[in-house]
Amino acid sequence: MTRARCAAWLAGLWAGLLWAIALVGAPAAFAVATSEMAGRIAGRMFAQEAYLALALSMVLALLLRSRARAAAAAGTGSVLSADMLLALGALLCTVAGYFALQPMFAAARAGQGSWSFATLHGVSMSLYGLKALLVSVLAWRLAPQ
Asked: Burial level of 97, CB count in 10 A (0-12/13-18/19+)?
């Protein structure tokens, strides 16, 4: 399997995972469990996805970097390609949306901190949605023509 096909496959798999969690997993948890239990289930899914996202974004960035270097050497592109920016943007959304906000959620539940739980949830959802969009666009761009 070539690096380009591997990158396309990984991006497509990641995009599918993001949309499955958002459109199937989390809503299903809230449909069948108590609000507290569903929140714990959804939180666990998002935690697992966040750690997987760290690995996938780094692997994709490395795979895309070799393509970008080749394009830059041929004079047809930059070493910082649009595809690499999409992968790095998804990484940034993961770090900000999960790893930076997660400690703030615990404080908000305890009534501490300057942000409410609802505000944090909205910011987190927005960053997750942006990540899903970035990864979907990356998968689309990497798909064989």
From this structure: buried
The string of pLDDT tens digits covering residues 19-43 is: 999 999 999 999 999 999 999 999 9
H helices of 2-116, where?
A: 3-20, 26-32, 35-73, 82-94, 102-109
* H or E, element range at 96: none
The mean pLDDT of 117-126, rounded to a whole number, is 94
Cα separation, 113 vs 96, in Å, equals 17
Q: What would you report as the CA-atom Rg of the chain, rounded to the nearest whole angstrom?
A: 17
Instruction: Write down the domain spans for the chain.
Output: 3-142
55 pLDDT above the threshold of 90: yes
Q: What's the longest Cα–Cα distance across the chain?
A: 57
* d(C-alpha 26, C-alpha 24), whole Å: 6
